[in-house]
Amino acid sequence: MDKLKILIIDDDKFDRMNYRHILEKNTDFLAEVLEADSSSKGIQLAEEEAVDCILLDYQLPDMDGIHIARAIRRKNTEPLAIIMLTGRGNENIAATAIKEGVSDYIVKNELNSRLLITSIINNVNKCQLEKQIKRNRDLEEKNRIAAEQYYLKNELLENVSHELRTPLNVIMGFTNLLFDGTLGSINEDQKSALNNILSSSAQLLELITNVINITEMDSYRVTFTAEKTDVSKLIFSIVDIVKSAAISKNIQITSDIEKNFPTVYIDPFHFTQVLKNYLSNAIKFTTEPGYIIIRIKSESATTFRLEVEDNGIGIKPEDINKLFGLFQQLDASTTKKYGGIGLGLALVKRIVEMQGGEVGVTSLFGKGSVFYATFKKI
Predict the structure, then answer these.
(1) Which regions of 175-244 does DSSP assign to beta strands (E)?
(2) Which of 52, 302, 307, 321 could form a Cys-Cys staple with 295, CB 3.0–4.6 A?
(3) How many CA atoms lie within 13 A of 334 on its CB side?
(4) Residue 64 Cα distances to 9, 40, 324, angstroms
(5) Range of 185's domain?
(6) With 70 as the cut, is the pLDDT of residue 40 above it?
C-alpha cells in the first residue's frame, strides 16, 4: 500500500501519542500523521488536506464525534475512511455513527496495533474501491452523454447535407440546360462562366456527399454488399470519371494490375469511393507534368492491395499521422493553395476499416506518395 495521510482528531494527548506510535512502527504502509486536538481544527484539516483516513475520538469537549463526522462528510463528498474510537462501547452510538458515514467503530480498551492497522487498511481499500466505482460511473455517464451528442451532431449534419444537396442538384440541372443551349444559344464567355458554375457545384456536391457518407458510417447505418467484380473494368470506369481533371493538369494515369488477377467479391460502390478519393487527392497534389499509377496486387490468398502512386508534393514525416483524421489538413498554406477540408481520406479510412481492411501511406516530401488500402477477395 502507498503512503497514507492519516488525521488523528482527539483532545487526549496520550491517545494521540499512542496512535502515532502504532502508525510509525507499522510495516504494512508508510503514514504521514496529522493531529488535531479540537473539533474545529480537525474539520479544517480534513477539508484542507487530502487525507486517506481519520482516527476520530467520539467524545471531544466542544462536539461529539458523530457531529464531527457529519460536518466532514458535508464538506467532502468523496469516500473517506473514518474510524471512530470511543472509551466505552455503545451499540446505539455505533449504529448512529455508521449511518453518518463512519467506516468502523472501535472501543479504546479493546484496541491493539493489529486491530487498528487492519481496520485502516480494510477501510482505506474499501474507500479507494468506492472512488474507482464512482469514477467509472461518472465516466460511463460522460461517455453516454458524449455518444448522445455525437449522434445528434451526426443527425444534424446528415439532415443539413441532404437539404443542401436537393437545391444544389436543381442548380446544376438548370445550369446544364443553359450550358447545353437547351434554353437558348449562349456565347463563349457565358459558356465559360457556366462551366465554372458546374465545376464548383460538382466540388460542393462531392463535399456534401462525403459528409453524408461519413455521418452514415459513424452512425453504423451503412451496409456493404459484396458482388462478383472484375477489378480491371471497374478501375477503367473510375479513371474515366477523373480523366478530364487529370488531362487539364497534364497528368498521365496508368494502371498496373497483377497478371491473372482473379475476379473478386467486393462492394463495387464503396471500392469506387475509395479509389476515386485517392485519385482526386493525387490529382490535386500533383503538379504538371505528372503521373499517377494505380496498382492492384494480391497480399494473400484472401486479401489484395490497392495502391495509388503519384509524383506530387509528398508529405512531411511529421504530417503522416494527420492524413486520415477527420477535417485534417497539413497546414494553412496547403489548404489555401489546394483547398479541401479533409473529408476524403477520413471517408476512405472508415470505408476500408469497416470492411476489415487497413489504409496507409508512404511518402517522400517533394518526391511523391503511395496511398494504399487492403480489401478481402471473398
Answers:
(1) 227-229
(2) 307
(3) 18
(4) 11, 11, 63
(5) 142-218
(6) yes
Write down the pTM of the prediction. 0.53
Backbone angles phi, psi at 34, to 5 degrees: -115, 145
- Provide CB contacts within 8 A for 81, sequence distance 6+: 52, 53, 54, 103, 104, 120, 123, 124, 126, 127
Helix (H, G, I), strand (E, B) or coil at 266: strand
Query: Residues 6 or more apart from 177 whose CB is under 8 A from it?
Result: 183
CATH number, domain containing residue 55: 3.40.50.2300
Q: State the helix-helix crossing angle for 13-25 and 113-179, rounded to 10 degrees.
A: 70
What pLDDT digit, counting tens, does each position of 127-185 carry? Answer: 999 989 988 988 888 888 877 776 777 677 777 777 888 889 899 999 999 999 999 99
pLDDT number for residue 356: 93
CA-CA distances (angstroms) from residue 19 to 24, 25, 62, 236, 272?
Answer: 9, 10, 22, 84, 75
C-alpha to C-alpha distance for 42 and 128, rounded to whole angstroms = 22
Domain identity same for 211 and 349: no
Which of left, alpha, beta for 60 (phi over 0: left; psi -120 to 50: alpha)? beta
Same domain for 242 and 344: yes
Q: Give 99's contacts (C-beta < 8 A, 6+ positions apart).
A: none
List the grid coordinates of 287.
503538379
How far apart CA 335 and CA 323 sit, in angstroms, is 13
Among left, alpha and beta (phi > 0; psi -120 to 50; other), residue 141 is: alpha
DSSP letter assigned to residue 286: -
Amino acid at 251: I
pLDDT tens for 220-234 read 667 889 999 999 999
For residues 351 and 358, what is the distance between their CA atoms, to the nearest angstrom? 9
